[in-house]
Amino acid sequence: MSSEPPSAPRWDSLAADGLTLVLVEQNVVPGLKIVTRGYVLTAGRITTTGTAEQLMADPAVIESYSGRRRIDPRRDAMTPTTTALVRPARNRFDGRAVVVTGAGSGIGRQTAVQFAAEGGLVTVADIDAAAAQETVRLVTAAGGEARVSVTDVADAGAVRAMIDDTVAAYGRLDVLHNNAYWAPQYTSVTETTEEQWERTIAVTLTSVYLGCRFAIPHMVERGGGAIVNTASTAALVASPLFAAYMAAKAGVLGLTRSVAFDYGKQGIRCNAVCPGLIETPATARVFADPERVAWLTDKIVVGRAGQPTDVANAVLHLASDESSFTTGQTLVVDGGRLIG
């Protein structure tokens, strides 16, 4: 196979997320045989060329792909010019350092596991040491890499140490997922104590400020990074008896836009996800009542409650290079609840 890369810039963006792809261009001329040319792209650059048959006969190429699908030019030639794509298991965060707060359970745990599954070097931060260690166990059992950071995200010194220790361990910081929260349930403004209010704001909103404050300088030093904050649909529409939580999550959205605006030209992207009804340990009380669950899911367009992986998928998308032109935005992950 030739080692000289051809000129095909129109395909570069298809590999911008660092995946290795096989692209096959098929020029079909009526009455003539199919002419097939293949390209292997890695991290946005064409590294190998040859016919589709040559490429897919190369063991090194085949080994890169899940499913090991071979391209048959006769089967795949559906249009005069067809691009066939064989996509491997995704590794969008290969070698990138990621911090996830509130990673001891629920959305945070699932997000940490998925970052690691895609090659991320993950700091699992949680105030509960045993819960954080269990998340790390799940990551390492699946072949990923993660470390524990026992962190009270409401404490500035602890958050600074969480960030600095990550950089010391991994030599870099690429992604910060501010996910931790705390809130009293079923309390109106008049029923919320000052202690409850202050703790909610500290853990749910101030923690996001602290994480961004200490992470951004490290990210800027390396040319940029991605921050994804967990807000809530409660930041967008009213929910009964969640006064402190709603106020804090609304603040998260405002802070997200502010960070995106102030640091965009320094390579920082900042976005937020707004989960709806998600089945996690934090919502166990809700899901213990089948009638209430049925009533709630009836209002969800897709007809079911969400799972942690639904939110994790959104977080990874926003943190990845796939979202390189997306910042200051809010991605609602609620199964269509708010459109009804």
The 3D shape can be described as globular
Number of helices: 11
Question: What characterizes the major β-sheet?
Answer: 7 strands, parallel
Topology pattern, helix = H, strand = E:
EEEHHHEEHEHEHEHEHEHHHE
Helix percent band: 25-40%
The CA-CA distance between the termini, in Å, is 56 Å
Q: How many runs of DSSP E, i.e. beta strands?
A: 11
Looking at the overall shape, the CATH architecture of the largest domain is 3-Layer(aba) Sandwich
Strand order of the largest sheet: 7-6-5-8-9-10-11
Task: Give Rg in angstroms.
Answer: 23 Å
Structural class computed from helices and strand pairing: alpha/beta
**Regions with little confidence, pLDDT below 50 for 5+ residues:** 1-37, 41-46, 60-89
Assign the CATH superfamily of the largest domain.
NAD(P)-binding Rossmann-like Domain
- Mean pLDDT comes to 81
Number of domains: 2
CATH topology of the largest domain: Rossmann fold
β content, as a range? Answer: 15-25%
The top-level CATH class of the largest domain is Alpha Beta
Protein architecture, described:
This protein has 340 residues and is of the alpha/beta class. It folds into two domains: 9-86, no CATH class; 97-339, NAD(P)-binding Rossmann-like Domain (Rossmann fold). It has helices spanning 52-57, 59-63, 73-76, 106-117, 129-141, 156-170, 194-221, 243-263, 284-287, 290-297, 308-319, and strands at 20-27, 35-42, 45-50, 81-86, 97-101, 121-126, 145-150, 175-178, 225-230, 268-275, 330-333. It has a seven-stranded parallel beta sheet, with helices on both faces. A four-stranded antiparallel beta sheet has the order 3-2-1-4. α4 crosses α11 (308-319), α6 (156-170) runs parallel beside α7 (194-221) and α7 (194-221) runs parallel beside α8 (243-263). It is globular.
